[in-house]
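>> received
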Amino acid sequence: MIQLIKDMRKMQTSQEVLNRIGFISEIKKAESYKSVLGLKSEHCAFKKLEDIAWKIAIKKANTVEEIEKCATLIEKNYSGDYDPYEWAEQIRIKAYGIEWYLKRQRNSPAHQEFVNFLDSHFSQ
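>> returned
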């Protein structure tokens, strides 16, 4: 496992690491089946390895597209100990800045519905 981590750290792009994450996820899934059957399983080890791989992929992301790809893949595919949506938002905040994030939140449809709700109920 340590060799896998070393190999991922040597990779040049985040896409290479993301490809490896798919492989690790499949192994993790197979290990979870083993634990359900009562066999010796390394599910926890592969779960930690997958977390490390995500962090390596994020660090290797250099462009906006790569950062956004990491964030969206975390939202769609991550099944670890962290909240995937919160983690993706943290990645975006660090990449684009807090001003971008707050501007995006203020322009969201959910925020507009909240403002409309406040106006309709409390503006009498």
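>> Residues 75 and 84 are 5 Å apart (CA to CA).
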